[in-house]
Amino acid sequence: MQIDIITLFPELLTSPFEASILKRAIQSDKVKVNFHNLRDYAENSQKQVDDYPFGGGAGMVMKIEPIDNCLNHLKKNNSFDEVIYLTPDGEQLNQKISNELSTNQNLAIICGHYKGVDQRVRDHLISREISIGDFVLSGGELAAAVLCDSIIRLIPGVLGDESSALTDSYQDGLLAPPIYTRPASYKGWDVPEILTSGNTHKIEQWREDQAMDKTTKQRPDLLKD
Ligand code: ADE
Questions:
Q1: CB burial class (10 A; 0-12, 13-18, 19+) of residue 85?
Q2: Atom 5, ligand 1: which residue's CA is nearest?
Q3: Taking the CB of residue 203, how many other CB atoms lie within 10 A of it?
Q4: How far apart are CA 15 and CA 18, in angstroms?
Q5: Which atom of ligand 1 is found nearest the CA of 138?
Q6: What is the CATH number of domain 2-152?
Q7: Is residue 88 within 6 Å of ligand 1 at its C-beta?
Q8: Does the beta carbon of 109 lie inside 6 Å of ligand 1?
Q9: Residue 135 alpha carbon, nearest atom of ligand 1
Q10: Is this model's pTM higher than 0.85 or not?
């Protein structure tokens, strides 16, 4: 998979890709992540990337030309399965969307900043709008890191233990059951006995029950479908 991220602030985005699972995914060529600084695609000598909103109002608006120039440049070598714009008023990200996106070969992600992008970008240049939740960030960069992390870990071979992504919360529509490691007893707080019993069938049943209990208590909305 290749992900091209278009941003005014690439420095906000680099470190999440330089550690742990994302770093390994890049090193093992499971994914290639490219950052593109929008300022490099600005047209005038001041490299202007934003401007005042028509009709007045607070905040600056990201101009369409640098974004269009950047996408056209990238499209010379690439055809994107999706061009995603990150915005708090987009479709809310969930595991189903991450699963879907992880099957693509080429994604472009546009990070908004300031008041957002000129509406014509949204009307003509993108295929999908995604929000990572009902709150407003200073820009789309941190949202892009979240989106990329949730997608990349699902690419086959990225996680060491293949089954590990399958047992994540939400993957089967339920929250994940509690997990423990050694020591079996700490300050009198004991690990549930069943987990040290060696009875794999009963352990599996216990995990399923715990996942169902936890979901019923904490996220009953997930059980509606
Ligand atoms: N940009 C600003 N806030 C955002 C959010 N909640 N999700 C995606 N992009 C954003």
A1: buried
A2: 88
A3: 16
A4: 5
A5: 2
A6: 3.40.1280.10
A7: yes
A8: no
A9: 6
A10: yes
Ligand 1 in contact with 143 (CB < 6 A)?
yes
Ligand 1 center–CA 141 separation, angstroms: 8
What pLDDT shows up at residue 161?
75
Longest CA–CA span in the chain (Å) reads: 71
Residue 149: count other Cβ atoms within 10 Å of its Cβ. 17
Residue-wise pLDDT tens digits, 91-137: 999 999 999 999 999 999 999 988 999 999 999 999 999 999 999 99
Residue 191 has which token pair? Answer: 């690990």
**Mean pLDDT over the full length of the chain:** 96
Asked if 130 and 86 count as a contact pair (C-beta separation under 8 A), the reply is: yes
- CATH number of 167-223, picked from 3.40.50.1390, 3.20.20.150, 3.90.1150.10, 1.10.1270.20: 1.10.1270.20
For the segment 24-45, what is each residue's pLDDT rounded down to a tens digit? 999 999 999 999 999 999 998 8
- Read off the amino acid at residue 45: S
Spans of all domains in the chain: 2-152, 167-223
Extended beta strands in 113-177, E state: 128-131
Residues 6+ apart with CB under 8 A from 129: 84, 85, 86, 87, 89, 90, 91, 122
